[in-house]
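REQUEST FORM: STRUCTURE PREDICTION
Request ID: SP-0412
Submitted by: Lab K.M.
Chain count: 1
Length (residues): 537
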Amino acid sequence: MTNDTRISKEILINQTHRETRIAIMENGVLAELYVEKPENARIVGNIYKGVVENVLDGMQAAFVDIGLETNSFLPYSEIEDNALVLDQGTEEDDEDDDDDGKPRDNKAGDQRRHQPHGRGGNTRQRPSNKPPMNLKTGQEILVQVIKEPYMGKGARVTTNVAIPGRFMVLVPKVNYVGISRKVNNNYERRRLRKIAQKIKPDGFGVIIRTVAEGKDEEVLEGDMNNLMDAYKRMETAIKKQPAPTLVYKDMETVSSLIRDLFTPDVEHVVVDSKAMHRQLTGYLKGAAPQLVDRLELHKDKMPIYEKFNVETEIQKTMTPRVQLRSGATIVIEQTEALVSIDVNSGRFVGRKDHEANAVRINLEAAREIARQLRLRDIGGLIVIDFIDMNYDENKKKVYYEVRRELRKDRAKVAVSYISDFGLLEMTRQRIRLNLLLSATEQCPVCHGNGRIASKASMVTKIESWFRRYRSKTRELRLELQIHPELYSFIKTGKKNVIRSMQWQHLMKIDVKEDDSMNIDEFKVFSKKLKKEITNDY
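STATUS: Completed
RESULT:
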């Protein structure tokens, strides 16, 4: 077995008239999937001139009208004045340094660390329940979206606006230089800081991104000029357009992912649309010409996602059960409150030693769970029920395996230790609708419950309806319409329910099959009135 831990990365882009799908492949396996539809376009990163609608000290938040269907949510923790360092920025974990090159206090750095567009806000806590500025209803305010609207809730926004470029991020109203943590060569950090201090305008902060490593001053200055042009266009929009209005639009999903993820370690970007290929080629020629040769147009007759086995993997994400190589399974169930993940031994036999079996399954499950969280883009509170282990050292093994695998995740996560009940609690930043919710809709039969009334329960409901009906009316001829399976259940049962009800209520009931109906519904029609009366009784 090789010790080479290098990950081979590819980006595969499939575009149709209905949607665009971007697959991030790691060592030939689907790791992340982004889907953008015209009716559900990405708004994370957009900057709006909004109007404060409500200021609620009890919630430590304000609601801001930015021109969308639902007002956006602005927590007090996302409101800063010009004296504080802004909190929004890049697609990577950045370390914030002062202009003089001295690192900030670790605690302050943790609190003020720039979070990427598309990865959520910060975790700072303010001691006061008052906003840091005199926020009033009707006030116009500049905000940037950091989290997409989710299940009826408005977008989450921040006043810490920032404009991302290919090599750096422009942060208005501060005097600050930040260098990506992933640039760990001290000489290179000093070189980049010196360039940034030279090219940045007064009154602006910049964050140097990882991809800027090794780039000369001319390249970085070109990126800075593009950012300043974007900022000036935004300033003009702010002055001329009435609130609420969009004043800066970030790139659509494909372009933003190419900007943020097409790093030197990505071997290929393959796209199956000629128009998209031309668009990305034009962008790369200006932003990263050395990467143009890695952009390929898929010309094979076999669909791109079929060729790379992506379609099969996508279909698997639509089911709650995930099969592990050992024969064990994990089951992922999503509710409004949390996501539960259950680890089951399944067909796994292994050794006779239960503890050893549990550890082996749990370690395998930990790796797959981390992958599934990224792939399905699951966020919020997550509770993992591992197979019970008796010894603390084994629990630690599984805990650290989870943490190790989550290092690959660009989303912000927090993981707790495994409890005495074998439960591991964690949170993962929720930025947008996860893959399942964006690709599916609520079942009209079960209404999202995942279960429907049994045939026996439906018979009981029908009997109850007829009892209510006979207690209130004297009409004796009705027609009952039901699904064929329910009809068969009634006819083949030990007791002929319809005949029994007819004798009990001294009435005539004609039963009709209707395969267009759901199995858990029935309809009753009045022969006399010639209309449906189901909801009348």
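NOTES: The chain has four domains: 9-42+252-310, 46-82+134-248, 320-439, 455-532.
Reviewed by: T.R.
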